[in-house]
C-alpha cells in the first residue's frame, strides 16, 4: 500500500542515456563473442587440481554468454527500481516523496557504469580463451574508476526522502542530503584517482577505489549519526 499519494511510475522506467550506453556495451560484448568464437579454446582452466578440490574449467559457451546476459539482467532489474520503490514506500518514509525521475537517473547511470565494467571484464575473459594479450590490472582498474566517477556524480540524487516522526530519526535522515553531496564528490574523485593509478601504479588502484568508497559513505554515516545524537535545538524524541 502506498501512502504518499504519488502516481505510480510505469513498471519499466528506462533512463535514455543510461539505457543507450548499457545497450551499446551489451552489443559490443555479443559482437566480441561472435568475432572471437572461432579462435576460442573449448575450455579454460581457472583453477588447477590440488588438495581436496579438482580442476575447475569454464567452457567457451559460458564465457561467451554469461557476462552479456548478466549486464542485460542487471539493466532490467534496475529499470524496475522506481516502480518497486513506489510500491515499497509505505514501509519507510525514506522511500517516500522521492522523484521517480531522480531514482531513474541514479539507476540508469549505475547500470551504464556497471555495463562498461562488465564489457571490459568480458574482453578479458575472451582473451583467456584466445590467448590474446590483455592487461587486466590497467584495463579493469580504469573501468572501475569510470564507474566510481559515474556513481559519484549521481550519488546526491540517492539521498532518502520523506519525513520521520521521531526528531532523532528525522535529523538522521535530513543530514544525509548534504552528506550525500559531499560523498558524491569524494567517490568521484576516488574514481579519477583510480583511473590515474590504473595506468601509473596499478597495485594502488584497488586501495584508492575501496578507500574512496569507504570514505564517501563514512562521511554519510558519521554526519547523519552526529545529527541524530545532537538534533537541532537539542530537542528530544517526539
Would you give an account of this structure?
The protein has 238 residues and is mainly alpha-helical. Helix content is 67%, strand content 4%. A hairpin with an 8-residue loop joins strand 1 and strand 2. Helix 4 runs antiparallel to helix 5. The longest helix has 31 residues. The relative contact order is 0.12.
At a glance:
With 238 residues, this protein is mainly alpha-helical. The protein has eight helices and two strands; from the N terminus they run αββααααααα.
Tell how many strands the DSSP assignment holds: 2
Mean pLDDT: 85
Task: Estimate the strand proportion.
Answer: under 5%
Shape: globular
Q: Oligomeric form of this entry?
A: single chain
**Residue ranges: pLDDT <50 for 5 or more in a row?**
1-5
Strand line-up across the major sheet: 1-2
Number of helices: 8
Helix content: 55-70%
Q: Which structural class is indicated by helix and strand composition?
A: mainly alpha
Amino acid at each position: 500500500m502506498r501512502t504518499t499519494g504519488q502516481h505510480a511510475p510505469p513498471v519499466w522506467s528506462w533512463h535514455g542515456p543510461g539505457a543507450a550506453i548499457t545497450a551499446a556495451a551489451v552489443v559490443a560484448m555479443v559482437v566480441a563473442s561472435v568475432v572471437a568464437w572461432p579462435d576460442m579454446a573449448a575450455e579454460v582452466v581457472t583453477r588447477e587440481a590440488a588438495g581436496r578440490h579438482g580442476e575447475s574449467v569454464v567452457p567457451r559457451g559460458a564465457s561467451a554468454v554469461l557476462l552479456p546476459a548478466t549486464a542485460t539482467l542487471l539493466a532490467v532489474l534496475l529499470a524496475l527500481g522506481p516502480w518497486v520503490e513506489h510500491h515499497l514506500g509505505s514501509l519507510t518514509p525514506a522511500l517516500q516523496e522521492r522523484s521517480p525521475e531522480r531514482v531513474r537517473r541514479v539507476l540508469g547511470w549505475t547500470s551504464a557504469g556497471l555495463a562498461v565494467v562488465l564489457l571490459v571484464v568480458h574482453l578479458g575473459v575472451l582473451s583467456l580463451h584466445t590467448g590474446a594479450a590483455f592487461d587486466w590490472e590497467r584495463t579493469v582498474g580504469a573501468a572501475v574508476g569510470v564507474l566510481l566517477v559515474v556513481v559519484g556524480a549521481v550519488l546526491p540524487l540517492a539521498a532518502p526522502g520523506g519525513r520521520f516522526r521521531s526528531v532523532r530519526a528525522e535529523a538522521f535522515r535530513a543530514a544525509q542530503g548534504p552528506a550525500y553531496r559531499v560523498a558524491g564528490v569524494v567517490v568521484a574523485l576516488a574514481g579519477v584517482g583510480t583511473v590515474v593509478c590504473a595506468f601509473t601504479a596499478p597495485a594502488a588502484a584497488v586501495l584508492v577505489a575501496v578507500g574512496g568508497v569507504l570514505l564517501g559513505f563514512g562521511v554519510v554515516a558519521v554526519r547523519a549519526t552526529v545529527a541524530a545524537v545532537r538534533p537541532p535545538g537539542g530537542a528530544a524524541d517526539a
